[in-house]
Specification:
Blueprint lengths: L3 E2 L2 E2 L10 H12 L5 H8 L3 H14 L18 E9 L6 H4 L7 E6 L6 E7 L2 H12 L4 E8 L20 H4 L5
Length: 179
């Protein structure tokens, strides 16, 4: 069972390891969660009823946390994507700082190791709206500084993928010398 530590939700692990068929199902669902069980089963090499049962089990185990629509940011007027590093005095994750999650512009909040305490992924209408959000963040007691990284172009943005890389290429395989 998932435990919560200091208000931070821990990842729930599936009750058993995912097999190849589970990963194939998840691979199809992550691309389009609206496919029928017949289509899903066909893509994963299973019957429709078997695909349905596996999806139900994946939901019960927590491997599938929820099904959601992915909205085009421009369609809702949030074309500016930025990552904001937040530095605080003391422990970064305070109830006051976590309260910024009430703003719909804040998509993700991460407690991180490194040169910042917290990392935020935010989408706003424009630079002025980002400035307003940063002002709200600076109003939080304990916030010392922020560093914002405005995204110019996005080349890859995707949800968690079900497959893992089993063997990483060695460095000499990745870079071919010119000479």
């Amino acid at each position: 069972m998932a435990e919560e530590t200091d208000g931070i939700q821990q990842s729930r692990l599936p009750s058993r390891d995912l097999d190849a068929a589970d990963r194939r199902l998840l691979g199809v669902l992550v691309e389009d969660a609206t496919v029928s069980y017949a289509q899903l089963g066909e893509a994963a090499g299973l019957s429709a009823p078997a695909a349905h049962e596996r999806v139900k089990r994946l939901r019960r185990s927590g491997a599938i946390r929820k099904t959601a629509a992915i909205i085009d940011p421009k369609a809702v007027g949030k074309s500016l994507l930025a990552f904001v590093h937040v530095d605080t005095r003391g422990w970064g994750k305070t109830p006051e700082l976590m309260d910024i999650s009430r703003y719909p512009e804040v998509e993700e909040i991460h407690s991180v190791a490194g040169d910042a305490c917290m990392l935020l992924k935010v989408r706003t209408e424009d630079a002025r709206a980002l400035e307003g959000l940063l002002a709200r963040i600076y109003d939080v007691p304990g916030v010392v500084t922020t560093r914002s990284y405005v995204v110019l172009s996005t080349y890859l943005e995707r949800s968690v993928q079900p497959h893992t890389t089993r063997v990483w290429p060695s460095t000499h395989e990745m870079v071919k010398p010119i000479y």
